[in-house]
Structure formats: C-alpha cells, structure tokens
Fold this sequence. Notes:
This protein has 303 residues and is an alpha/beta fold. 34% of the residues lie in helices and 26% in strands. The longest helix is centred in the last third of the chain and has 21 residues, at 280-300.
Amino acid sequence: xxxxxxxxxxxxxxxxxxxxxxxxxxxxxxxxxxxxxxxxxxxxxxxxxxxxxxxxxxxxxxxxxxxxxxxxxxxxxxxxxxxxxxxxxxxxxxxxxxxxxxxxxxxxxxxxxxxxxxxxxxxxxxxxxxxxxxxxxxxxxxxxxxxxxxxxxxxxxxxxxxxxxxxxxxxxxxxxxxxxxxxxxxxxxxxxxxxxxxxxxxxxxxxxxxxxxxxxxxxxxxxxxxxxxxxxxxxxxxxxxxxxxxxxxxxxxxxxxxxxxxxxxxxxxxxxxxxxxxxxxxxxxxxxxxxxxxxxxxxxxxx
Length: 303
C-alpha cells in the first residue's frame, strides 16, 4: 500500500453512498486542502466495521470502487485509500490509528470527521478526543455537524430503506446524485437480442443492496460514452426461475458489444415494479413502452 509523499487533508469515515452528509465533509476537505497547499484525501474501509465488530451483515449501497469514483466525480477528492477492516484494525487503539496510519502513513496535516464518527478499539476514538489529540500534535481538525433534509438526518441507513421501498427519487435527493452501481458485463441468455432488445447483464456485486425490483430509467457510462437505458433490476420472473438478481440495462441508441467491459449504471427514475407477463410478446411491448418513458424522462431532465 503506497505511502503519500505529500501532505494531505483527510476525511475519515465509511462513506457508503457518498451522500449529502458525506459531501459536507468532502467539500470541506477540498477547501482546507486548497488553503494548506495539501492533497484532498479520504480514508475508508473495504468492508463495514459492523460486520466484524457486531457480526452484522450490512448490505451496502456501493462497492469501494464506486465510493472512490463518486468522491472524485462529485467532490474532487481523487485520493481515496481503502483499508482492510480486519482484527488488527479493529483492535488498534484510536490514538495509534491517528499517529501511525493517518499521520504516519498518509501525512495528514488536517483531519475532517463527522459529528458522530467513532473509530479505534471499541469505538473509543470520538470527535472530542480526536480534536484534543490534533491540538497536541499540531494538526488541524474539523468536526462537521449532521446534515438534514426535510427535517431528516441524512444517513446511509435511511437511504438504504428508501431504495428498498422503491423511493428512488427521494433516495437520490438525499444522496445528492443518482444512485450508482458498476460492474463487468456478463453473458446472459441472449433473449433480449432475439427480441431486438439486446441487454447488457450485470450480476449485482456481492454484499451490495439491490434497489427495489423493477424497471428504471438509467444513464449508462461506458468507455465509448454515456447512453440512456431501460434497466430491469430483479430475478426476471417471466423468463427465469433461478432467482439470481441481475441488473439488466437495454442501452438506447447503442450498437456494439459490451461483454467483459466495465459499465456504470446511474439510476434516475423508477418506472414500474417488476412483474410477470403472460408471455414474451407482452413483455416486449411493455419494455418498448418503458423505452418511450425513459426518453421522455431524459427530455424533461436534460440539464
């Protein structure tokens, strides 16, 4: 793992979803970095600390790669260090985490945390203790208060609940950007191609929360450019029985082969829940209708 050779202003957190609350930290990191002539950076973990500490499986909004992409895309934080969260990390005293990792390895001269951030062994690192240690070490420190929208505290947990309930538009407001998934395109059953509706199939990355099953108007980012797409999330009840969750975009106005390529899906609007159709022709007619809805949505939201 590389050491930073230059000084950094660093945000600490898990940053699942990279929502508006995280955005407050990351925007401040950018401003402080400019003031101090330092590199804006963020420190996160490959898996959720609650999995090891509490034995809880936490379904996540994004992979670490997508978190890093979102931080750079929306907040200009291009240095994102993803650390493993293992037993050694879990048992590391909070002050050693700051002196050895944050300062020692990543050369932080200023640290930014959220008001409720806990870190180190048994969560003994608190914003208050961190502020005191930073004063002692001659480092800058900002503690960012909670961010609210519509009187609700912005949190990854709240946004997960919205996505599960199919409330995509509200989830995107709390995220501050479209909900995002990415992955390599895998071979499907070629049914879409036979129907004249060729889809790119992604298997949902392991540990990632699927949005509510259904059909979405999406934006697809590929190496060749950005395309509108009708995307089905679910188990395809009309044609499949294996129960595997797929994310299946049909890129409108795209011609070419995407197999093995990495694509990114931005969920913009939910068109309908997933449902089982009487047959393939009824399914095709509905997908073509969803394509028109998708074009109409993007025509209304072209900014």
